[in-house]
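Audit log entry. Action: structure prediction of a protein-small molecule complex. Ligand: S-adenosylmethionine. The ligand was supplied as SMILES and no pocket hint was given, so placement is left entirely to the predictor. Protonation state taken as written. Sequence taken verbatim from the request; no trimming, no tag removal. Recorded inputs:
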Amino acid sequence: MAARRSFTDSDTADEAVRTTCDDATICKRFATSKGYWKDSCLQYFVRNVGERKAPEINRGYYARVQGVNLLLDAFLKKTQCLCQVINLGAGLDTTFWRLKEENLLPRKFFEVDFPTVVARKIHYIKTKPPLSKPIIDEHSSDTLLLEPHALDSDRYCIIGADLRDVSGLDEKLKKFQLDPELPTLLLSECVLVYMTPAQSSSLIRWAAETFHTAMFINYEQVNMSDRFGQVMVENLQRRQCSLAGVEACQSLDSQRERFLKTGWENAEALDMMTVYSVLPQEDVARIERLEFLDEKELLQQLLQHYCICWATKDKLSLGLSQVAF
Ligand SMILES: C[S@@+](CC[C@H](N)C(=O)[O-])C[C@H]1O[C@@H](n2cnc3c(N)ncnc32)[C@H](O)[C@@H]1O
């Protein structure tokens, strides 16, 4: 009886975590409709612009997307795109299509998420030519591997897997020609926080042990032990979404430490208030003119409770430790 109950509970919790990808996509869709940044593909994952979002939310997403893109693009330039990218917990993220448009595609772009999320994304890709065409254009033979929870082509691969099962993940990625010898960028955006610190540590350690030249970009909550952080946790708990990994989100140091303890050579972390202040200021001035912001203090608090942490190891001496804002 007890076992059955706990299965049901964890199933509900996983389902709540899976729905967070819609929240992210809906917010990005709204912000792009206001002109914060351009994304030609979000419309195929969320048709309607949806309810208005507060300006501080839009600015927060702007800082998140620009900050992560800046580091990702710097890695692609350092490796001259002779690399692979693995987006862990990718949800409905559109980075593959942006990189294709900007002629910055890595050798192969992998995405991983729960099988049900992947099945949905594959459905969108199959039914929307602007999503499928770039994948087909980059594929050299007539046949693509297409399964309910996996799609594999020369340059794009999406796999259904649970990131808490590292050996299963490793097996699936290798089945789809993951190359441990290639410089590799791993990306997790609001994902590790949904796993226990032990589970995220195994994932981070697996990445450090598998790739000799790599960078890991992690965007998520920080400074979670203060009152504002606790309210964020409570709000998510109300939606059955528990932040199992909140312990690793106590400070910038705890974010860095988790990488330094698991085999990474360097790790840096900045809160998003700092990232916002070091993004190209001309563009920041442009987006600040888009909407009037009344709640300046709320924006500051919000940005102080998210961070980007990036870690590197660099056997090929590509200068990855110099990648920074
Ligand atoms: C907040 S969403 C972020 C999605 C995407 N990274 C973005 O920024 O738009 C978190 C994503 O992580 C995925 N996720 C969380 N835990 C996971 C796990 N254990 N295995 C696979 N995917 C997971 C969820 O399904 C969801 O798509």
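Audit: result stored. The chain is about 50% helix and 15% strand. The CA atoms of residues 53 and 256 lie 31 Å apart.
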